[in-house]
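Write out this protein's structure.
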Amino acid sequence: MSKLSKIILALLLIYSCDRNKDVKLCEKYVASGNGFFIQFKNIDTTSTIKITTSKGKINYSRENLFNSNNISYGVYGKILLEDTLYVKLNSKTYKVYDFENIEEEGIDGSNHRKIKVCRFCRATVNGTKIKDYRNNVLVFDKNILN
């Protein structure tokens, strides 16, 4: 995992979902509107991937997370819990919907106080419920989702 990826992941986990900042964000947006990751397993690393929402374009970028044999994308922006993502993997399109967040207690690194954090925890992909693999990571395993 590159230094930049580690920094991005740490920032997402520490700052993106701080419930003390705005209680309503966790109830409205996936990961409080500050992004999450989609990791693709068991696919050819030259695969073409495109991610959109039911409302059109969404910001995303390829990230080098966890394992170089897998492809990971950071998905950024305020995605509503009721939105639908469309993930096109080569010629097959996956529909991602029914997003859910979870609230957990964490420690604020700046002042060591307990805080409530909100993170993405599960979604439905083409009718299959998928739990997050790690904090804010949705794993697309081609062997399971075909």
